[in-house]
């Protein structure tokens, strides 16, 4: 198996792309130019904890868990567009939930063996920031049978209608 989970390739419409093992050895190679000190200068302490240290915000506390504004959700750290409101759904879990990313090449999947279980972590492919986790087979009535459980603090919503606000 060698560092690959049993998830299928990105061509499968109902499963996320192949995951790699999580090694806790720092950010993805794409962000080698940005140091932890530089990230600390750019992000609030809470943002740094979630985005750069793979923390999790408390459920029902983030600004987007129950937002229904149309628009695009971008990585709060680097601005890469990751999710669209059309793929957001109410999962009642306390975090924003999406059934698919904007495009598979915008996210990366990392096998996360913390917390005594196997999960699939979702990161921004552009900057390596932690977004949340993706779960499969929970029975939600969505086209993919996936739930991307994403921290609000990892995202910035750009409303389709700027007057609508977040």
Automatic annotation (TrEMBL):
Residues 1-37 are annotated as: Disordered. One of its GO terms (biological process) is protein repair. One of its GO terms (molecular function) is metal ion binding. It catalyses: L-methionyl-[protein] + [thioredoxin]-disulfide + H2O = L-methionyl-(R)-S-oxide-[protein] + [thioredoxin]-dithiol. Its EC number is 1.8.4.12. Keywords: Metal-binding, Oxidoreductase, Zinc. Its cofactor is Zn(2+). GO terms for cellular component: cytoplasm. InterPro entries: Met_Sox_Rdtase_MsrB (IPR028427), Met_Sox_Rdtase_MsrB_dom (IPR002579), Mss4-like_sf (IPR011057). Residues 1-18 have a biased composition (Polar residues). Residues 36-160 form the MsrB domain. Gene3D superfamilies: Peptide methionine sulfoxide reductase (2.170.150.20). It comes from the Bacteria. PANTHER family: METHIONINE SULFOXIDE REDUCTASE (PTHR10173), METHIONINE-R-SULFOXIDE REDUCTASE B1 (PTHR10173:SF52). This is peptide-methionine (R)-S-oxide reductase. It comes from Micrococcus terreus.
């Amino acid at each position: 198996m060698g560092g690959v989970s049993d998830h299928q390739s990105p061509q499968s419409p109902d499963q996320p792309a192949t995951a790699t093992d999580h090694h806790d050895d720092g950010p993805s190679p794409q962000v080698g130019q940005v140091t932890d000190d530089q990230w600390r200068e750019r992000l609030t302490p809470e943002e740094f904890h979630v985005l750069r240290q793979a923390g999790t915000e408390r459920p029902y506390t983030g600004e987007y868990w129950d937002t229904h504004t149309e628009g695009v959700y971008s990585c709060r750290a680097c601005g890469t567009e990751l999710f669209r409101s059309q793929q957001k759904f109410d999962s009642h879990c306390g975090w924003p939930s999406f059934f698919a990313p904007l495009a598979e090449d915008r996210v990366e999947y990392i096998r996360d063996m913390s917390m005594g279980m196997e999960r699939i972590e979702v990161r921004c492919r552009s900057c390596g920031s932690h977004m949340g986790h993706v779960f499969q087979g929970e029975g939600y009535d969505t086209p993919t049978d996936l739930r991307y459980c994403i921290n609000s603090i990892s995202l910035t919503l750009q409303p389709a209608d700027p007057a609508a606000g977040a």
